[in-house]
Specification:
Layout lengths: L8 H19 L7 H24 L3 H22 L10 H22 L4 H23 L2 H31 L13 H9 L1
Length: 198
C-alpha cells in the first residue's frame, strides 16, 4: 500500500510570505522592528519552513528541500543577528550586513534559474526575492534610506506573491480545478509522447 503525501509547499510559502510582508512593512518605514516581527521570524518564517523542507525531502523534492530549509534558517539567523547584540555580542556593521544579504541574493538568483522549470507564479516569487535581496544589500552598502524604502515596497510585493502561490495551490487542489491561475508549465510534447508510450 502506498500512502499519498500532502503537498507541504503552501505551508512554507505562507510562512515565508506573511513574515516577508511584515518585515518589509517595517523596511518601507511604516513601523519599527518589534517582538511581533521577531516572533514571526522564529516560528512561522523560520521553524515552519525548516519543517516543510524536511517534508519536501521525504517527497524527494530537491528544490523544495533546498529552498524551504535555507529560507527557514535565513529567518532564524536574521532574528539572531537582531537579538544577539542585546545579549552582549557585537552588532554587525551595515557594510557587513550588505555582504550577508548579497550572498543570499546570489543564492536566490540561482534558485530563480531553477524556478524556470516550474509555474510562472513560482518564478515571480523567486525573481522578486532576488531583487529584494540585492536592494537590501545595496541599502546597507550605501546607507540609502530611499533604497531601503523601495526595497520595503518590493518586499511587500514578493511576500504577497508567495501568499498568492500558496493559496492557489490549496484552493485549486480542493476544488480539483484551476480557480486561481499559477501559469502552470505544459509538459513538452516529447515527454508527453514518451509517457504515453511507457
Amino acid at each position: 500500500m502506498s500512502t499519498k503525501l500532502a503537498n507541504p509547499a503552501p505551508l512554507g510559502l505562507m510562512g515565508f510570505g506573511m513574515t516577508t510582508i511584515l518585515l518589509n512593512i517595517h523596511n518601507a518605514g511604516f513601523f519599527p522592528i518589534d517582538s511581533m516581527i521577531l516572533a514571526m521570524g522564529i516560528f512561522y518564517g523560520g521553524l515552519s519552513q525548516v519543517i516543510v523542507g524536511i517534508m519536501c525531502f521525504k517527497r524527494g523534492d530537491t528544490f523544495g528541500t533546498t529552498a524551504f530549509t535555507s529560507y527557514g534558517l535565513f529567518w532564524l539567523t536574521l532574528v539572531g543577528i537582531l537579538v544577539m547584540p542585546y545579549m552582549g555580542l557585537p552588532a554587525s556593521p551595515h557594510a557587513f550586513m550588505g555582504w550577508y544579504l548579497l550572498l543570499w541574493g546570489i543564492f536566490t538568483g540561482f534558485m530563480f534559474i531553477g524556478s524556470l522549470c516550474y509555474p510562472v507564479a513560482k518564478q515571480v516569487v523567486f525573481g522578486s526575492l532576488t531583487i529584494l535581496f540585492f536592494l537590501l544589500a545595496a541599502r546597507d552598502f550605501t546607507g540609502s534610506t530611499l533604497i531601503g524604502t523601495i526595497a520595503g515596497f518590493e518586499g511587500i510585493f514578493c511576500g504577497a506573491s508567495a501568499i498568492y502561490f500558496a493559496m492557489a495551490q490549496v484552493i485549486n487542489n480542493e476544488f480539483g480545478r484551476t480557480v486561481l491561475p499559477i501559469g502552470a508549465k505544459k509538459k513538452p510534447q516529447v515527454a508527453a509522447v514518451q509517457e504515453l508510450a511507457a
